[in-house]
Amino acid sequence: MVLPSEDVPWGIKLIYWINKKCCRYRRVNKLAWHRGGVLALTYMSYTCYHMSRKPISVVKNVLNLNCSTLSPPSDIIIDDNNKDTWCDWAPFDTPDATALLGTLDSAFLFAYAAAMFLSGFVAERVNLRYFLSLGMLLSGISSYLLGISKPYDIHNLGYFILIQAMGGVFQTTGWPGVVTVIGNWFEKGKRGLIFGVWNSHTSLGNILGSLIAAAYVETNWGLSFIIPGIVMGIAGFIIFLFLTPHPQDVDCLIPSQPRYKKLNATSSDEGTSSEDNDIQRVEDQITHRCSWHQHVNHLDTPNLQSETSPMLPGNRRGHSFGNERAIGFVGAMKIPGVVEYSCSLFFSKLVSYTFLYWLPLYISASTTYSPTLSADLSTLFDVGGIAGAIAAGILSDYTGMSAVTCSGMLVLAVPMLFIYDCSGNINLGTNVVLLMVTGVLVNGPYALITTAVSAELGTHPSLGNDSKALATVTAIIDGTGSIGAAVGPLLAGLVSRWMGWHNVFYMLMAADVLALLFLTRLTYRDLCVFRQRRLAV
């Protein structure tokens, strides 16, 4: 077998060479081997992305403390002017510290949301191995720069805002990149479960980021950012050495399992069962009846391939992948369901990221727990998120109704948010249980929309066989959701300061209701299709 050497990562070339020399007579399932490697590498990659963005939520607890409850060191003079702020880190030693900390979150998230749309456009047109590895390196540097503000005694608010915004821009390389790579390697029909399990990297990254930050938050909080930054850079180098973005790079063929099959009025394809034909006819009838199917007008895109630039995708040596055209934003927005899921994710991600950035501080403020214990306890929300992502993926695969799955979890999330707000601080055991259940219901819809649903829409049949839109669709959906992720923590900081934490939870409940409303038409269509299928059997 002759591999296209310009497309194969150096680490894969080395593994092939070792296998040829040392395991000459051993037969290996090449496709399964590469799929396992891609899953592991992309899982590691996005775990690191979230690990590096989580520490700020933990460090908030020590940037602004109730210093009157602490004993000052002998070298600090305490008077009436600084008795409540001597332990705080300027410029977060003022009465409006909560709003300033919320500004840091907003700087990251608004930059992330704005850059996400451009990032998806770029990811569709470049080599994703370079794209991801460079993004991880720059994200690691941003985290490192945030951490050195402690040893270098930096107190400039503009510095913190600038570094946070830079980190937000660089972090946008992650999601379109990893989702597109997974979508390239796994066919439809298995994505719900695969993405559900694989999406646990988000929660695992949050957990690791919280634990690392908690280990240093009360001794040297700068290390809470520096260590994740270093790990991020190392992981980016591993991605550069081993990630294979597309099966054609290593001469692998993915079995095609189209979900929709076009039928001919006079003949049917060989091998297509009558049950498949019946289901297709039912779906065609429902599509016509609901009058929402739209065809995408492909936008002409200039050929961006160049053998002299490693960032641009090279020739696929006869594979059809090389002839695919990257679709534009207008065409991607016309794909049925993109607008509805994007708007729903706006509110779903608003809720999830409010927990991500404010949960440790909320637990500390509503209980007597220390900053370290509050950070450790907040990880249980992400443990529940792992279970929620897997459950949503399994339900979506089993029922074939992604919108119904999301709607059901959103319906249950609203009362659960109310229960956690009212009863979460009763005792430690109650807090643990309610946090995990809340994590399941809040993160389940968010995880399903950003993974399996995005991949499904990015390869929608209306695109035809000559266009690719996975990264663009992923960026549109996640970018819209990221705007909500930016708005949520900002509003939480303001509402908690002026109206109290109870009103923050009312805001989150309202957001989940709005997310549910945007899925109404898609939910109705899923139920129509399900009903017609039952009648056709």
Describe the structure.
The chain is an all-alpha fold and 537 residues long. The protein contains 19 helices and two strands. The chain has helices at 10-22, 30-53, 55-63, 97-123, 128-147, 157-171, 174-185, 191-198, 200-216, 223-242, 274-290, 329-333, 338-366, 371-399, 402-423, 428-458, 470-498, 501-518, 520-536; strands at residues 325-326, 467-468. A two-stranded parallel sheet has the order 1-2.
Summary of the model, kept short:
By secondary structure, the chain is mainly alpha-helical. 67% of the residues lie in helices and 1% in strands.
Notable traits:
537 residues, mainly alpha, 19 helices, 1% strand, globular
Mean pLDDT: 79
Which descriptor suits the 3D outline? globular
Give the helix tally: 19
The class by helix and strand makeup works out as mainly alpha
How much of the residues is beta strand, in percent? under 5%
Stretches with pLDDT under 50, minimum 5 residues: 257-276, 286-309, 314-323
Order of strands, main sheet, comes to 1-2
Order of helices and strands: HHHHHHHHHHHEHHHHHEHHH
Write the layout of secondary structure elements.
Elements: H1 10-22, H2 30-53, H3 55-63, H4 97-123, H5 128-147, H6 157-171, H7 174-185, H8 191-198, H9 200-216, H10 223-242, H11 274-290, E1 325-326, H12 329-333, H13 338-366, H14 371-399, H15 402-423, H16 428-458, E2 467-468, H17 470-498, H18 501-518, H19 520-536
Parallel strand pairs: 1-2
Helix pairs in contact: 2-5, 2-7, 2-9, 2-10, 3-9, 3-13, 3-14, 4-6, 4-17, 5-6, 5-7, 5-10, 7-17, 8-14, 8-16, 9-10, 9-14, 11-19, 13-14, 13-16, 13-17, 13-18, 14-15, 14-16, 15-16, 15-18, 15-19, 16-17, 17-18
